[in-house]
Amino acid sequence: MLTNTFIHIQGIGVKTEQKFWGSGLTDWSRLSPESINGRPSRLNGFFMAGIEDSIKNLDENNAAYFGKRLPASQSWRLFPEFRPSTAYLDIETTGLDRDYDEITTIALYDGTSIRTYVQGRNLNQFVDDIQDYRVLVTYNGRSFDVPFMERYFKTRLDHAQIDLRYILKSMGFKGGLKGCEKQLGMDRGDLAGVDGLLAVYLWDRYKRKGDLKALESLLAYNVQDTINLEHLLVTAYNMKAGETPFARERQIPEVVLPENPFAVDVRMVEEIQRGFLRGAF
Length: 281
Hints:
Blueprint: H1 14-22, H2 41-59, H3 63-69, H4 79-82, E1 86-93, E2 103-109, E3 114-118, H5 125-129, E4 135-138, H6 141-153, E5 160-163, H7 164-170, H8 176-183, H9 196-209, H10 212-241, H11 247-250, H12 266-278
Parallel strand pairs: 1-4, 4-5
Antiparallel strand pairs: 1-2, 2-3
Helix pairs in contact: 9-10
């Protein structure tokens, strides 16, 4: 889909792009100075330069070039071309304040393997490992996960970002990650009752009591958030591509989610939830 895209080029909006498609200018390879004769003259120079830059940066596997130029709600167009270097990412923290709270765990899934990072064990290894990827897929990562990690690790994550919050919102899906999952027919099973607040208490229990079941439950929740992102992105991509003239040729197969290597302790979760109701926390 990326090579059918023109809205990342200066001066090209959605309506102009659709006019291009309608007139047969559907792919970078079909464009030449002659093919845009009759278009506004202001387009000819920088438009062809933009196409040349796009071809060059795609050949160089430079996802960041496109990530900076595509609107957040249109970043789904990056996906197929950069899928081999894409990481699905989610963090858990002690709270929402980037200046005072800490990262407790990180889950990273790349469509093949699952990696987890735990504070006090291997958390700092994440900074090196994330350099293996060019695209980060998150839900609300632009506003929360990525800035939080940059502050916490004192580094810059210059990857292209596909933030599903913006894409799904543009499609009418709201209510947070879990709300969007439900609207799209996804079931979390035993993890349905776990949320961000409970994740904070699971970490606290692990730190205070050394309770490894609490840590495993937290990692189960963290990993599930991450692997579900792939299914959501593939679904959103196919729906979005289905609205273009390239619906048939650009569809990609649905994914089979990997098995979560961690299991939630349902009794522990229920115990913590009862504590919430009693005001014990």
